[in-house]
Task: inverse folding
């Protein structure tokens, strides 16, 4: 049977893809944007739809940065900013989400030209020369890029302001992560943990507080960006079933596709135990618009834990 959706004038001025997604009860789990290394550059100017490309950073810097990013597998660049922050140079962060444990580096740039002196490929490898720039404090990036999608302005700004008032310095605005319809979207670095609908989360401050304490809350979790969708879902479902909450308490070992839309995934916990889980993907005939503009739609997907064994 062909996939269907209700008839909606999604190009009208009062259509919001995030509200449509919520009304359809779309699951968040397994929807995190995919990236192993995140680069976050402070830029307080206007953010366009293609923020870095449309920024006032010189073309020479853009070219060199993009050339290096293109050689780093699964790398993403976001622009970030904070309301009311005194502009004494520019902050530049690099999150190695695949490191064990994940690592966050912080640089203070006098000018964007300083980027030309930083070996981004070496940073992505975790070269020892950058150890002095290691940061112990997590960073939270809330997408507020309204010129990319109006839902990110509607929901993201509200979430950023509320969390910033509560926690201050660790909370940043950012450009587009991926998944407009899940806004307000928040990333927790260096872990690459993605959360959605943060503007309507029941306990948004508790989510951030738990992450600052090194725990992984499951409320509003989209997944961990270093994993593909099924593994993201498997981690969330396993944690819900086992009670394991340490942010680095589970390590992915392997995943294997099984017939019937099932996937077998193996993790190892901090105690050395192996967790074998099997999940089943359910693809709905109902479709959701992926943004407030354009015609692109995606099926609603949710995942079910059907087996969990501990060795």
Result:
């Amino acid at each position: 049977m062909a996939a269907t959706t209700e008839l909606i004038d999604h190009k009208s001025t009062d259509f919001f893809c995030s509200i449509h997604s919520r009304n359809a009860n779309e699951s968040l789990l397994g929807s995190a944007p995919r990236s192993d290394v995140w680069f976050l550059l402070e830029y307080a100017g206007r953010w366009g739809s293609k923020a870095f490309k449309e920024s006032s950073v010189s073309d020479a810097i853009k070219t060199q940065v993009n050339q290096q990013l293109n050689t780093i597998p699964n790398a993403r660049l976001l622009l970030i900013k904070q309301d009311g922050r005194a502009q004494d140079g520019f902050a530049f962060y690099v999150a190695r989400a695949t490191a064990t444990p994940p690592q966050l580096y912080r640089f203070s740039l006098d000018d964007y030209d300083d980027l030309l002196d930083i070996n981004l490929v070496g940073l992505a490898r975790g070269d020892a020369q950058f150890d002095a720039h290691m940061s112990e404090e997590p960073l939270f990036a809330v997408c507020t890029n309204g010129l990319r999608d109006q839902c990110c302005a509607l929901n993201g700004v509200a979430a950023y302001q509320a969390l910033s008032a509560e926690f201050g310095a660790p909370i940043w605005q950012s450009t587009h992560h991926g998944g407009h319809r899940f806004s307000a979207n928040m990333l927790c670095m260096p872990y690459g943990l993605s959360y959605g609908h943060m503007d309507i989360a029941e306990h948004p401050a508790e989510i951030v507080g738990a992450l600052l304490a090194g725990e992984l809350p499951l409320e509003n979790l989209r997944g961990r960006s270093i994993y593909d969708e099924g593994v993201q879902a498997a981690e969330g479902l396993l944690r819900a079933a086992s009670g394991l909450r340490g942010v680095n308490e589970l390590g992915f070992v392997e995943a294997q596709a099984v017939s019937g839309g099932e996937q077998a995934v193996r993790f190892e916990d901090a105690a050395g135990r192996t967790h074998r889980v099997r999940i089943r993907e359910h693809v709905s005939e109902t479709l959701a618009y992926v943004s407030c503009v354009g015609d692109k739609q995606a099926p609603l997907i949710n995942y079910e834990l059907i087996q969990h064994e501990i060795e």
Notes: DSSP finds six helices and 14 strands in the chain. The CA atoms of residues 27 and 302 lie 6 Å apart.
